[in-house]
Design brief:
Elements lengths: L9 E4 L5 H12 L3 E6 L3 H13 L4 E5 L5 H15 L4 E4 L14 H26 L6 E5 L3 H4 L5 H21 L5 E7 L16 H5 L10 H12 L10 E4 L7
Parallel strand pairs: 1-2, 1-4, 2-3, 4-5, 5-6, 6-7
Helix pairs in contact: 1-2, 1-8, 3-4, 4-6
């Protein structure tokens, strides 16, 4: 027998048009939450996620916004409150994947990656705070990356941004704990996701160099299960933590 632990709750999942973000949005909806689906420009894919939620009897709404910018983050929160009237869960999943050796890594690309991964988590968390404080079960989840802990070639900007999420998680846990808001970082590793081959995006080096103890790559849904648990009533004593889900590829 399954129980829906998030009935009546509202969640925002940034970068939720595909891969891990998509599965997180779908799983939170299966647990009963209403979900705002976000992407910067992938409207069709975001609408597909919303339709999947609605087809299963859930509530979902799509809002396109560049959450690396203050106005984008603000519009995202305004859309969620306007559509659903409250907010309980924020999942900061927005990210870009880039491969660039240091000698060809331009400042503009460095700043783009930092903005998409780290600035967006800060901006969305700050914009969400007034609404999260009104919830009796508020949660912020930051989605990290295993290579920020193991290291990887030609990804200094991505690794620095993802490592920054760990520090942000700890800082926010201290700041928001008195309000009853939990903040945790989930770090996926070696997950079987769809990756493009253009714009310097392809199979990361650590996917070739590292192996799992369980003998397979993870499914995005397995990350979604962990996120849903952290958002629920059985995880209210967990905050400020970095939780690795990688099949034993990296032992913290």
């Amino acid at each position: 027998m399954t129980t829906q632990s998030l009935i009546g709750r509202v969640a925002i999942v940034t970068g939720s048009a595909k891969n891990i973000g998509r599965e997180i949005a779908l799983e939170l909806a299966r647990e009963g939450a209403s979900v705002l689906i976000n992407a910067r420009s992938s409207l069709q894919e975001a609408q597909d996620v919303a339709r999947a939620v609605q087809a299963a009897g859930g509530r979902a709404f799509v809002h396109l916004a560049d959450v690396s910018q203050p106005e984008g983050a603000a519009s995202l929160l305004n859309a969620a409150i306007g559509q659903f009237g409250r907010l309980d869960i924020l999942v900061n999943n927005a990210a870009v994947r880039r491969h660039s050796p240091l000698e060809s890594l331009e400042l503009a690309e460095w700043r783009e990656v930092m903005a998409c991964i780290l600035d967006s988590a800060y901006l969305c968390s700050k914009a969400a705070l007034p609404y999260l404080r009104q919830s009796d079960m508020a949660t912020v989840i930051n989605i990290g990356g295993m290579s920020a802990h193991t290291g990887s070639k030609e990804r200094a900007h991505v690794l620095a941004a993802k490592a920054g999420l760990v520090g942000l998680t700890k800082g926010l846990a201290h700041d928001l704990g008195p309000d009853g808001i939990t903040v945790n970082c989930v770090v996926p590793g070696l997950i079987d996701t769809v990756r493009g081959e253009s714009a310097g995006v392809g199979k990361p080096e650590h996917h070739s160099k590292n192996t799992t103890l369980v003998g397979r790559k993870g499914d995005p849904l397995e990350i979604a299960y962990l996120v849903a648990f952290l958002c629920g009533p059985k995880a209210r004593y967990l905050t400020g933590q970095t939780l690795h889900a990688n099949g034993g590829a990296y032992l913290n």
